[in-house]
Design a protein that fits this description.
The chain is an alpha/beta fold and 251 residues long. It has one domain: Rossmann fold (3-Layer(aba) Sandwich), CATH 3.40.50.720. Helix 1 links the parallel strand 1 and strand 2. Helix 2 runs parallel beside helix 3 and helix 3 packs parallel to helix 5. It is globular and about 50 Å long. Bound molecules: NADPH dihydro-nicotinamide-adenine-dinucleotide phosphate. NADPH dihydro-nicotinamide-adenine-dinucleotide phosphate binds next to helix 1, strand 2, helix 3 and helix 6. It holds the Pfam family adh_short_C2.
């Protein structure tokens, strides 16, 4: 059964791969971007070619900044008008601002938490009303292996990603009886812009620490996310599913 899906930060990287995977299986898919547009998408705004959005595997692009509740509300309203209420929410938008604890400013900490954790809270809250009314919903939060294992230079990022586990598990307790699931996907090292800046030496070091011996493609995360939204995963909730080639075993 085709569903309406919203992926935040769906204009590139893991978010775009997730959106394309849902579109490929016939769902109606909206993606948020912050003004740069989305490859191959139709959308609500001039310049994004309004016709055909959500059909024939295309994506419906809406502008939203997850740090701004009003822009999230406007994006959901546009998606609801075009594709119907959001049934599957993928809170994917995220950022890093890595530096060692001693040097990390309070702003670097709060900016990352505001985007990665509070941003996910904002979209989950906005999605929950319609999911409750429909008595069906799927929320998937994109965390990180770093959320549970920690990462040097990533106190802000790890805190934000660990927080998503508490969010998903609390939502599971609150909304689980209404056929709404909330799960966390915890990727390891995925080949996107976020990891493109790592030096070759650092990448080689990372590969050595991963049992699978390689980084993953965004599509390998997308497969787990589409499964979590499927009917086969209806009894999976409050779970943290690693997609990390074995890097975080035991967490
Ligand atoms: P990218 O840096 O390639 O993409 C990040 C996405 O988030 C972009 O679409 C970006 O939009 C969006 N975004 C950032 N800040 C905001 C904001 N305030 N409001 C709306 N959108 C925003 O990252 P990845 O694709 O690699 O990462 C996607 C998710 O996966 C993130 O949550 C990340 O933490 C997580 N992750 C990534 C891993 C990796 O190895 N790559 C590993 C583990 C987790 P814009 O294009 O406008 O900047």
């Amino acid at each position: 059964m085709a569903r309406t899906v919203l992926v935040t930060g769906g204009n590139r990287g893991i978010g775009l791969a997730i959106a394309q995977a849902f579109a490929k299986q016939g769902d109606r898919v909206a993606v948020t971007h912050r003004g740069g547009g989305v490859p191959g998408a139709g959308g609500a705004e001039p310049g994004f070619g309004a016709g055909g959005a959500g059909q024939h595997g295309s994506l419906f692009a809406v502008r939203a900044d997850v740090t701004d509740a009003a822009s999230i509300d406007a994006a959901f309203t546009a998606v609801e008008a075009e594709l119907g209420p959001v049934e599957v929410l993928v809170a994917n938008a995220g950022m890093t601002a890595d530096t060692l604890l001693l040097r990390m400013t309070e702003e670097q900490f709060t900016d990352v938490v505001d985007t990665n954790l509070t941003g996910a809270f904002r979209v989950a809250k906005r999605a929950s009303g319609k999911m409750l009314r429909a008595k069906w919903g799927r929320m998937i939060f994109i965390s990180s292996v770093v959320g549970l294992a920690g990462g040097a230079g990533q106190v802000n990022y790890a805190a934000s990603k660990a927080g998503l586990v508490g969010v998903a598990r609390s939502i599971t307790r609150e909304l689980g009886s209404r056929n709404i699931t909330a799960n966390v996907v915890a990727p390891g090292f995925i080949d996107t812009d976020m990891t493109a800046g790592l030096s070759d030496d650092r990448k080689a070091e990372i590969r050595k620490s991963i049992p699978a011996g390689r980084m993953a493609s965004p599509d390998e995360v997308a497969g787990v996310v589409t499964w979590l939204a499927s009917d086969s995963a209806g009894y999976v909730s409050g779970a943290v599913i690693p997609v990390d080639g074995g890097l975080g075993m035991g967490h």
